[in-house]
Amino acid sequence: MTPLTIKESPTSTGIALEVAGDLDYTSAPQLRQAAHTTVLSSGRRLTMDLGGLEFCDSSGITALIAVRNHAVSAGAEVLLVAVPAHLRRLLDLTGLDQVFDMRESP
């Protein structure tokens, strides 16, 4: 098990969260908390770099949805970048690829 790390940094379009490690039942609240403490404003973007994500279970998927909902309620958009193949497959299978904007790079 790899501990979850989340690094926040400003971007020209808003805020970026670099998420690495295992996103699971024990660490999902950490991602939710990080998103809720991030200052989001209307018209800005929350970019989530998932390139370092090694594992994601259903609790992690739920946390990603919660982060998206939080950003949308603030009027911000969400962009997932560098989504690992294992997570992209889960998002495709669940139809969430239609909910999240995903790109290879910002």
Automatic annotation (TrEMBL):
Domain STAS: start-end pairs: 17-106
Domain of life of the organism encoding this protein: Bacteria
UniProt GO molecular function: anti-sigma factor antagonist activity
Homology family: Belongs to the anti-sigma-factor antagonist family.
Matches recorded under PANTHER family: ANTI-SIGMA FACTOR ANTAGONIST TM_1081-RELATED, ANTI-SIGMA FACTOR ANTAGONIST TM_1081-RELATED-RELATED
UniProt protein name: Anti-sigma factor antagonist
Gene: rsbV
